[in-house]
Amino acid sequence: MRILIVEDEPQAAERLSLLLTQTLPQSEIVARLDTVKRSVEWLQSGAVDLIFMDIQLADGLSFEIFEQVPVKAPVIFTTAYNEYALKAFKVNSIDYLLKPVDGDELNAALTKWQTLTAQPAAPAKMMESIAYAMQMLTKKYKERFVVKVGEHLRALEVSEIGFFFSQEKTTFAQTADHRKHILDFTLDQLDELLDPRHFFRINRKYIVSMPAIVDMVSYTNSRLKLKLRGMDDNDIIVARERVQEFKDWLDR
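Above: the chain's sequence. Below: its structure in token form.
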């Protein structure tokens, strides 16, 4: 098996090479590249069976490689970029390994790769998945909203907003100074527009930020009840199916 490593950290590349030699003794690491430019040049004429690729390289994101040259081999990403968008890899049958790479996780990723490549439509599916993951990781989130204040319009920065809520089919954004502003978006739309590092959809009525949370209390049926700064609603409940994900979000 011919393997290509695209990694700009020498120690990480050396560790991965060692693990691969131990795990796949019959494999050959044909090259170790550290930039988008060198990878594009190499892939224009080189062929491999599997690629291990860091996401953030010295001269840009490795996704730029896919825009410049056809990548015909399946890819396992290695990265320290542990963000929510990386779920796209798991959901869409592309794997990734967090650095420093662990031997057991490497074995699991290789097993998954072998299973996927046995499927007839695997290459096309993988390329489609990489494109989706790229879109997720480079997605730009909403930075401000235009709101009406009396007869005037103003730009409301997302950083000013503590939480969003829906009431009587109207969506509001509430700021740190407890002012409410009507938005021309539904909560479902906002869920796609807001950076998931800073906001979390706890139920059908609320999207909250961490600074807005004053208190959290265990509630019936394994749920959580929240107290939000400047909100009188005493029934702000984290939906049961969202509790664990909410805790993970708080503890990231």
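The radius of gyration is 23 Å.
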